Amino acid sequence: MRAIVAKGLVCAVCAALAAGTVAGCHALPSAGANGLLHPARRPLRAQERSLGPLVTFSAGPLSLAGWRFPATGSRRGTIVYLHGVADNRAAASGIATRFTPRGFDLVAYDSRAHGDSGGNVCTYGYYERHDLLRVLDALEPGPVVIIGSSLGAAVALQAAAVDGRISAVVAAEAFSDLATVARERAAWFFSDGTVRRAFALAEQTGHFKIDDVSPVRAARTISIPVFLLHGSRDRETPPEHSRRIFDALAGPRRLQMVEGAGHNQSLSMAWTQIEQWIDDVIPATQASAGDHAQ
After folding, report:
1. Fewer CB within 10 A of the end CB, N or C, for the chain?
2. pLDDT band for position 117 (50/70/90)?
3. What is the helix (H) or strand (E) element at residue 64, kind and residue range?
4. Partners of 21 in the beta sheet?
5. What was the pLDDT predicted at 187?
6. Alpha-carbon distances, residue 27 vs 115, 179, 195 (angstroms)
7. Which pLDDT belongs to residue 188?
């Protein structure tokens, strides 16, 4: 699953419920916290590892495993792809073949606690946004476009609010804030009190504040162009999340509802529009001139 709150949350809670005991009910907050913090780590398959040479990015004490695909022809800048929860960098393989011929380097890496990267706790952007900024430190000069899906979209928006090196963001199926989407996911089996206790345990274990994970709050200070996409049939992160972010954005913005798309499907159904939008915000002649000036 590539949803915002991983299947680990559901599986852990179902295991506690299946026990059918008072002890199992008392375990629900702990199960919820563990499911939130520890999404399933999907390893890369052998054929996926062979898609590109391994590049390691330093994120403080963590190492992030990634790929860097160089642009072909005249270089325009860099696209960084950020995958969704319980996924890995292999999701970027088709994106690399799409954008490197258009003059963009393509960088993709496994988020912390995902794939081959270090760490065992996912904080949905609280620490991941700073990981992205460390990756940006290793890039060549020039325009940078972040393309993020689900979790990656939330990280991209939160990073764009604090780092001026990001030129534009494409965010697909972003959640507006972690507290809201987690409550929406947990509502059918968690009481409000259980949710609060699960959040408190997650914050204590993960050393972060859930209320501070808020792409919609970050949007208020983002002045660069942002293209939001959301599947009209997304049941995991309802389209209202992107609408809230769109309303909050301070800079140039576009929102496209992709008819018939579910969660993590809108990117694959809208590449033509995404390519045109990137060409509009980073014209090839402008990017080339900027690189020459540097």
Report:
1. C
2. very high
3. strand 62-69
4. none
5. 54
6. 28, 20, 12
7. 61
3 state DSSP class of 228: strand
Query: Is the same domain home to 116 and 161?
Result: yes
240 lies in the same domain as 100: yes
Q: Does residue 85 register a pLDDT over 80?
A: yes
Q: How far apart are the first and last CA of the chain?
A: 42
For residue 107, the cross-strand partners are: 68, 80
Q: Which amino acid is at 108?
A: A
Domain C-terminal end among 211, 233, 268: 211
Q: What phi, psi does 157 have (nearest 5°)?
A: -65, -40
C-alpha span between 131 and 21 (Å, rounded): 41
Question: Which tokens hold the place of 269?
Answer: 């159904």
Average pLDDT over residues 84-109: 96
User: Using the 8-state DSSP alphabet, how is residue 251 labeled?
Assistant: S
Which residues constitute the domain of residue 1? Answer: 1-40+178-211
Q: Is residue 50 packed enough to be buried (19+ CB in 10 Å), middle (13-18) or exposed (0-12)?
A: exposed
CB atoms closer than 10 angstroms to residue 62: 15
Query: If residue 197 lies in a helix (H) or strand (E), which one and from where to where?
Result: helix 192-206
